[in-house]
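Can't paste images in this forum, so I'm doing it all in text. The chain is below; anyone willing to post the predicted structure tokens underneath?
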Amino acid sequence: ASAGNWRELAATQKQARLLAPVLGTAPADWNSLFPKASIVVIASAPFSVHEVLPKDWATRLRQFFDQRLETAGIIAGYLGALSPADLLLGEALLARGGETHIVLPFKREMCRHVFANAPEWQERFDQILLHASSITEDTERSCLNEGVNLQFAALRAYGSGRLRAIRLGSQLHLWGLEDVPWITAPNQPNFLIQHWRRSGCAWESIP
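Text version of the structure:
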């Protein structure tokens, strides 16, 4: 369904719930008549150009995403596309006809450079952007070391996903990758995951 159709469906579902008491039924009884329409936001550290991923890691993570997208009924994801985890989620969303909304902290060519030493992932980055439902990029920045921009983009993706879920009256899923396989040094706490913890948000750790 298109973004407009999902809004219309959400409005119809809301009206049905309002009618339920008049018809002598519980609002929850109407839920089975409508498809699930959840939203997901992912938190993951940007890829390091110096690291190589374990061979089976991508396969296992893609399987996890495929299963969770199906069971949660996720129709749209908001992500940064700077990590392999983001790209795998984007691919899984596209494979099931979902929406992929990309929020980049820099110009896309600078973001693409994150995968300069990993041609396969650079190609996957290109394909995700080619088929994305929307792309937001900060064209005023050009340095990949600007942590503030990375944090702002992460909050922007989270805020966009949260707002979309509110508008649809749907559940928002927050997925965070703490054990990052492309960083060999002790992992620094992920900014967005820290924000979720401080805010008391329920989030799911990606295995």
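Helices lie at 3-19, 57-72, 84-95, 108-112, 119-131, 147-168, 191-199. Strands lie at 38-43, 74-79, 99-104, 134-137, 172-176, 204-205.
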